[in-house]
Amino acid sequence: MRVARPVLMGLALAALTLTHAGGTTAGAATIRVSVTPKEPHPGDVVLVHLSGARPGVRVEWNGQPLRLFSVRDGLAAVVGVDLDTPPGRIEWRVVPETLAGGSRPSGAVLVRSRTFPVQHLTLPPNQVDLDAPTLARVESEQRELAAVLADSAPERLWQGPFRVPVDGGRPTGGFGLRRMINGQPRSPHAGFDWAAPEGTPVLAANAGRVALVAEHFFAGRNVVLDHGLGLFTLYFHLSEVRVARGETVASGEALGAVGATGRVTGPHLHFAVILAGARVDPESLLALLPPPDPAP
Question: Domain 118-286 maps to which CATH number in 2.60.120.260, 2.70.180.10, 2.70.70.10, 2.60.120.200?
Answer without folding.
Answer: 2.70.70.10
